[in-house]
Design a protein that fits this description.
six-stranded mixed beta sheet; 6 strands; globular
């Protein structure tokens, strides 16, 4: 089980971001957390587990196996192992049925939310936490502008969309990776995140660095 101190500033920052939402919950509420096995979602899961100790709530981890890679089942089990080390007792793995109709990213996202919605129906959580960071937000805004969405794209992803909550939207990917390092949490790096065939990766690798300069 993790411990936080002044030597774990990244974990403390994430924990503070999660606490805002936990403070709104009634006793015995449930919170689901979407986990992929990457740094962002495992850092969110770590912070949520730590912070939940101060509230009479239950946190449930939901891992989605998209089945898009040969070792996807192993990756899901790896994520489950990390969550168990964090102290999670309720960890579930859902196998998505990705039917590619409008691009791999969009199709995978649709299949992922189908899994999430199934768990929402089963567990009736107050919130379902997603681990999108400020990096994801910047990429989404740029992609929206590139696709011609205009000023509407500037709003980006919503902090709260019905039951779905993104507490890390003002926190960087660098911070989530630091939080994993502080807590001794191993995370998986998806090779798709470096595949330039995907528009989001091209934005991350090529567009954002030039804008920063």
């Amino acid at each position: 089980m993790l411990h936080v101190s002044t030597k774990t500033p990244a974990l403390l920052e994430l924990r503070k971001a999660v606490r805002i939402w936990f403070e709104k919950l009634e006793p015995n509420s449930k919170v689901c957390i979407g986990v992929s096995g990457g740094a962002d979602s495992l850092a969110l899961a770590a912070a949520s587990k730590l912070e939940s100790a101060n509230f009479p709530i239950d946190v449930i981890a939901v891992i989605v196996d998209h089945g898009l890679q040969d070792n996807s089942a192993e990756i899901a089990q790896f994520a489950k192992q990390q969550l168990t080390k964090l102290g999670y007792e309720d960890v579930f793995i859902g196998r998505a049925n990705v039917q590619i109709t409008d691009g791999l990213e969009a199709s995978a996202r649709r299949a992922r939310y189908q899994i999430f919605n199934q768990f929402i129906d089963t567990h009736q959580p107050k919130y379902f936490l997603l681990a999108h960071t400020s990096n994801d937000q910047a990429e989404s805004v740029l992609l929206g502008l590139a696709r011609g969405s205009g000023a509407r794209s500037l709003s980006g992803m919503a902090l709260e969309n019905n039951i779905y909550v993104r507490p890390l939207l003002k926190i960087s990917r660098q911070t989530t990776e630091a939080a994993c390092s502080e807590g001794g949490v191993e995370f998986w790096s998806d090779p798709h995140n470096d595949d330039l065939r995907f528009a989001r990766v091209r934005t991350r690798k090529n567009v954002l660095p030039n804008l920063e300069e």
